[in-house]
Amino acid sequence: MLKAQNIRFQYKAGKPVLQDVSFELKQGDVLCLLGPNGTGKTTLLRCLLGLSKPGGGNFFWNGEDMGPLSVRKRARLMAYVPQASALTFPYEVQEVVLMGRIAHLKSGSSPGKKDRDLARDAMEKMHISHLANQVFQHLSGGEKQMVLMARALAQQARLLVLDEPTASLDFSNQVRALQMIRDLSNQEFTVLMTSHFPDHAFLTANQVALMRDGTVLQCGTPEDVITGESLSRLYETKAAVFETSVTSAGKHAKVCIPIIEE
Fold this sequence. Notes:
By secondary structure, the chain is α/β, with parallel strands linked by helices.
C-alpha cells in the first residue's frame, strides 16, 4: 500500500537528517517509529505528506510514485495529526473537525449533511461531542489533540499519519487514542505513527522501526525488535523489557522499564 524507498533529506548547509530510509506498509498495518529527539521522525512524516521535499528517494502508493500528487489528492489518501495545531482563528471545535472534509468538497462548495454527519460521528468516537461549541484555542493541549484526531477520522483517508498522537493526553485519553488506532487497523485502515513510548508499540502496532541519526537501525515486529538491548542502544540509556501476566484480564503484556542508577 505504502512504500518508502531510500528517502534522504538535508537542510541547506546542514548535516543529513534522513539517510536512505526505507519501509513498507500493507493495508491494516500499524507502523510505530521509535527514536530519540532530533532523529528525523517528524521530518520523515513531513516528506511523506509533501510538506518537505526529499533530497532523494521516493514514496509509492499502491505502486504509484507520490511525488507528482497534488495536495488535494494526498489529502484524500492521508490524514495527518500533528503534535500541535497552528490554528489561530477562533474556530469552534465542530468547525475544526469539519475541516477534515475539505479534501472531498468541490471548489467553492460548502459542507453538506453527509459531511456534518461524518464530523459528528468522529467527535462521538473520540468522546468530545460536549466540546462541539467551544472555541478550539480555549481547550487544553490534550483536548486539542483529541479534536485533531477527530478531524483525521472525519477525513476518511485510508492512511493515518500520527505524530506522537498521545502527546499531552491524560491516562484515560491515551488509552482511548490507542484503542482507536487498534480499531482502525481492524477496519483495514493503515497507520504510521511516531511515539516516545515503546510500550505503545506493543499495544497498537504490528510493525516497529527504530530510528537514530536519520537511519533505520531495525525494522520488524515489536516482539522481535523491542528488547532491553535494542532500547539501550537506541536511547543510550539502560532499559529492560519484561513480560507480565494481567490476571484480571487473562492476558500477557510486555512492558518497557528504564533502569535508574542508585
